[in-house]
Design goal:
single chain, 243 residues, alpha/beta, Spore Coat Polysaccharide Biosynthesis Protein SpsA, Chain A, 9-stranded mixed β-sheet, two-stranded antiparallel sheet, 11 strands
Amino acid sequence: MTALAVIPARYKSTRFPGKPLADIAGRPMIAWVWDQANKAKEIDRVVLATDDERIADYCRQNGIDFIMTADTHMTGSDRIAEVATKIEADIYVNVQGDEPLIDPDSIDKVARLLRESKARGIEVVTAYIEGATQEQMDASSVCHLTSTTDGCVITISRYPIPYPMVETVERKIAVGLYGFSRQALTRFSAWERGPNERAESIELMRFLEHGERIACTPIPPGSIGVDRPEDAATVAAIIRSRA
């Protein structure tokens, strides 16, 4: 069962234009993500998917396997769905292009979960981190996940759910690390975005709105998404301290 890790990387970003090529400790951000994804043992091939020639040029010059995709995709998963029409695999893992500290073991865990979940008829998986800080509770950029007793997603929201009406529970932070079968990506790209996905701007809601189950698994904290220039500085400091 072949597994392809795809790193979506678009140049345009409202908060941080050009961030895939942003300098982090002397290297563009996508170089760090590329290195981490290639350390994953459950992945057979890693490819970067972009719509920008500047990113493509960097890949050509530095031996990064890449594929050009359309510039009309609303989400990274839509971009991966296009990749799935051009590169055949059994498993596609979406590795966010703005997480240079992503743990290869977390990528492996998602790939394994998808292999196991297929026996249950589940073709989409994701990850989460247990426990939310107060800062995360207050941030609209953070997505909160609530799950079933058998390890599937009930819903994901930018509100800190569930509401503690009777009992306070430890909230889970949704992570943008997804696994898909090829068939699931085909369905995803054919569906219109539903009202919940549009309202929350959370792409996995498209599967939930169409009645599909999503398996989920905990992973360790530690990765930092780079949404703003100050995030890049934080990650650079961590990388230098590790060196």
